[in-house]
Design brief:
Layout: E1 9-15, H1 23-34, E2 38-44, H2 50-55, E3 64-67, H3 72-78, E4 81-82, H4 84-89, E5 94-98, E6 101-105, H5 107-119, E7 129-133, H6 137-148, E8 152-156, H7 160-170, E9 173-175, H8 180-183, E10 189-192, E11 216-219, H9 228-235, E12 239-241, H10 244-259, H11 267-280
Parallel strand pairs: 1-2, 1-3, 4-6, 7-8, 7-10, 8-9, 10-11, 11-12
Antiparallel strand pairs: 3-5, 5-6
Helix pairs in contact: 1-10, 5-6, 5-10
Bound molecules: NADP nicotinamide-adenine-dinucleotide phosphate (NAP).
NADP nicotinamide-adenine-dinucleotide phosphate is lined by residues 108, 111, 134-139, 157-159, 162, 193-196, 198, 202, 220-222, 243, 246-247, 250.
């Protein structure tokens, strides 16, 4: 009798660099918890190596994977088909195969909104207006999702042309940084999608005094867990949402594609990630 052995399904994170990623911790936790025979690995691939690796993903032993900096736009072009969010945002960060075809999705969009819905229920007030800081990859995901929900969005970015391009794509309004003080009094939601406030980057300096009471302040950064922005927001009595839940919820999207099952963002999983971030973030 041959040995019965479940097929080991393999997925990976493709990027350059990838060494510091917390994705293996998340996926391997769910694999173990759900009793699925699978593994999630890191694949450091240079821009020269990436296209060939993706074209041979199945032959290389993978059912799919995540894509991170600097490969998301190339992954978009390599996918035979994309989900609506990836199509709209112009970036693919999840790849999987169906009937031998390479498909692409964007999970940052799902992660962004699932985290907001979970952590600040009823955030969407009638006539909801959001101010989004930044116009990079995270901002694209955020603005797309907020517009999908019918929110009026003002985009504020250091480089105005980038804000203008993003605003035109999704029907939002673009502004330079100087407009912020006059935009804040009308905001119901303030979202930081710049890299300012992240450990090792510059500080995000904003006076929150003009914000109305009850406004939700969301920082997509998760290192540190409590950015100066969120600390100031909490101090003023605002609801504050950090970026860890966005990372965890976006991970679930890929997991379902590669491994199936129903991965949940449990308090245990969040606590595990929080402990790791605290341990590795310089004070
Ligand atoms: P990105 O594409 O490089 O965009 C960076 C943004 O920050 C741009 O709008 C840029 O403005 C702005 N910025 C950078 N340095 C600045 C400075 N000194 N002054 C003013 N503005 C500055 O990066 P991204 O991929 O969107 O990531 C942004 C942040 O979101 C990162 O901290 C990342 O870790 C986080 N993130 C979190 C998740 C999650 O799951 N929680 C997912 C994605 C990203 P310019 O256009 O003027 O350069």
């Amino acid at each position: 009798m041959g040995e019965m052995r479940a097929e080991l399904r393999r997925a990976c994170l493709m990027g350059h660099p990838v060494a510091h990623s917390r994705s293996p911790m998340i996926h391997n936790y769910w694999l173990k918890q759900l009793g699925i025979a699978g593994v999630y690995e890191l694949k450091d691939l240079t821009p020269e190596e990436f296209p060939a690796f993706v074209r041979g993903l199945g032959k290389n032993g993978y059912v799919g994977g995540n894509v991170t900096v600097p490969h998301k736009e190339v992954a978009f072009r390599l996918a035979a088909e994309r989900d609506p969010a990836a199509q709209a945002v112009g970036a693919v960060n999840v790849l999987w195969t169906e009937n031998g075809r390479l498909l692409g999705g964007n999970s940052d969009t799902h992660g962004f909104i699932a985290n907001l819905d979970e952590r600040a229920p009823a955030w969407k007030v009638p006539g909801c207006r959001a101010v989004v800081l930044g116009a990079g990859g995270a901002a694209r995901a955020a603005v797309y999702m907020l517009r999908q929900r019918g929110v009026e969005v003002d985009i504020v970015n250091r480089t105005l042309p980038r804000a203008q391009e993003l605003a035109a794509r999704f029907g939002a309004r673009p502004h330079g940084t100087e407009a912020l003080p006059r935009l804040l009094p009308a905001a119901d939601l303030l979202v930081n999608c710049t890299s300012l406030g992240m450990a090792g980057k510059g500080a995000l300096e904003i006076d929150l005094a003009p914000l109305k009471r009850g406004v939700v302040v969301y920082d997509v950064i998760y290192v540190p867990l409590e950015t100066a922005l969120l600390k100031a927001a909490r101090g003023r009595g605002h609801r504050a949402v950090d970026g860890l839940g966005m990372l965890l919820h976006q991970a679930g999207y890929g997991f379902r594609k590669w491994f199936g099952g129903n991965p949940k963002v449990t308090p245990e999983l969040s606590a595990m990630l929080e402990a790791d971030i605290v341990a590795k973030t310089p004070k």
